[in-house]
Specification:
single chain; about 425 residues; alpha/beta; Aspartate Aminotransferase, domain 1; Aspartate Aminotransferase, domain 2; 2 domains; 7-stranded mixed beta sheet; 4-stranded mixed beta sheet; 14 helices; about 40% helix; about 15% strand; globular; binds 4'-deoxy-4'-aminopyridoxal-5'-phosphate; pyridoxal phosphate binding; pyridoxal phosphate; EC 2.6.1.19; Aminotrans_3_PPA_site; (S)-3-amino-2-methylpropionate transaminase activity
């Protein structure tokens, strides 16, 4: 056989050249043992911080006990225990669930369930939405054309309605909500009859689309329309769940209950696991055999998720996310006030975005990219987002401390100063 060594696909382009050797709490260490403050948490995945001892211990114990039990053949205790445990944190009545492996798979599962349960086909999403990269999930994704380009034809039946993005629209929040709800009603009058609409998918904080919290009045408007027209309200809590926004679920801020809740990322502190939950009357309408997969509810992931829930509860991480989120937002607004390049700083809990705009209000991708890179050089790992990549987002582990928030703000201030100089 010919000698060959493989190389990474250029598709796996890295935003920073950091080669992570290990992680501990809010820090990543590279192979030279240089320490980075990780304000990405792997897009919120390492909710309890890198390698939380409780999570490590639970996973290690489970690996040595039972790695995988195929739920179509045998049931196992971690899966049962996690199901019961999630019942305690899910919205009242949303108490039937099953597990898959990634956010995208859970989105696909929610769409299948919505179509089967309602007998209707169409789905509504909002401009800037991100629901994943598998074919149906990509069809529901509008956070940037790069996700959709070159892979069409996409799934038909997806209607895209404006998101109440007050800053981009140049409106007050109230006006943006009124506008977006009016446009949604217009879609119902012109594009998809409500009677053909199976579901509306929404992220409680627009994630990849730019870190824009959904105004509570908008979510309430969606709930009211879903009830009136008989379609389902699906909350994609992949980034916003498990305390990230300072409440357990992002939709808690609006005081509504969705019909389907999708969770992933923070659920198992980095182990691949996702879940969808719905009321039993709805879940029973799923066609047998149409959902699930080989690895869904893997025993090690379930054990890690149970430990994650323990840590969130015992360490008061939902409250910590709220308090630290407010501190971070205030610090970042202070930085923006000193530099003209940042047009908007917004967020909910530990999900905060800094939007770079030019003097005449256009997206400033270059300065955002520069600030992002300089921050990494100075030991602060961040992510960009938004269709133009001009939003620098901060999403640290939920265990972040006041000192770590203050250090991040200080480094960010230096990075912005250098990025906007001259
Ligand atoms: N939904 C949302 C809101 C997300 O942020 C993401 C991932 N960024 C997904 C779905 C897709 O998740 P995954 O990458 O695990 O497929």
């Amino acid at each position: 056989m010919a000698e060959q060594s493989a190389e990474l696909s250029p598709l796996l382009k890295q935003a920073t050249p950091v080669l992570a050797a290990r992680g501990e709490g809010v820090y990543i260490y590279d192979e030279d043992d240089r320490r980075y403050l990780d304000f990405t948490a792997g897009i919120g995945v390492t909710s309890t911080g890198h390698c939380h001892p409780r999570v490590v211990e639970a996973a290690q114990r489970q690996v040595a006990t039972l790695i995988h039990g195929q739920y179509t053949t045998v049931m196992h205790r971690p899966l049962l225990a996690l199901t019961e445990r999630l019942g305690g944190v899910l919205p009242r009545g949303v108490d039937r669930l099953f597990f898959v492996n990634s956010g995208s798979e859970a989105v696909e599962a929610a769409l299948r369930l919505a179509r089967q349960a309602t007998g209707r086909q169409n789905a509504i999403v909002f401009q800037g939405s991100f629901h994943g990269r598998t074919m149906a999930a990509a069809s529901l994704t509008t956070s940037g054309v790069k996700i959709r380009a070159g892979i069409g034809p996409l799934m038909p039946g997806v209607v895209v309605s404006p998101f109440p993005y007050a800053y981009r629209l140049g409106m007050s929040e109230d006006a943006a909500v009124e506008y977006a709800l009016r446009e949604l009603d217009y879609q119902f009058a012109t594009v998809t009859s409500p009677q053909d609409t199976a579901a509306v998918f929404i992220e409680p904080v627009l994630g990849e689309g730019g870190y824009v919290p959904v105004p509570p009045a908008f979510l309430r408007g969606l709930r009211e329309r879903a009830d009136r027209h008989g379609f389902l309200l699906v909350a994609d809590e992949v980034q916003t769940g498990f305390g990230r926004t300072g409440r357990f679920w992002g939709h808690d801020h609006a005081g509504i209950t969705p019909d389907i809740v999708i969770t992933a990322k923070g659920l198992a502190s980095g182990f691949p696991l996702s879940a969808i939950a719905a009321p039993s009357a709805l879940m029973e309408k799923a066609w047998p055999g149409s959902q699930g997969g080989t690895y869904g509810g893997n025993a090690v992931s379930c054990a890690a998720a149970l430990a994650t829930l323990d840590v969130i509860e015992e360490e008061g991480l939902v409250d910590n996310a709220r308090v630290m989120g407010e501190r971070l937002l205030a610090g970042l607004r202070g930085v923006a006030a000193e530099h003209s390049g940042i047009g908007d700083v917004r967020g909910l809990g530990l999900m905060v975005g800094n939007e770079f705009t030019t003097a005449d209000g256009r997206p400033d991708t270059d300065t955002a990219a520069r600030a992002h890179r300089i921050a990494a050089d100075k030991g602060l790992l961040l992510l960009t987002c938004g269709p133009h990549g001009n939003v620098v987002r901060m999403i640290p582990p939920l265990i972040v401390t006041a000192d770590q928030v203050d250090s991040a703000v200080a480094v960010w201030s230096e990075a912005v100063k250098e990025a906007t100089a001259g």
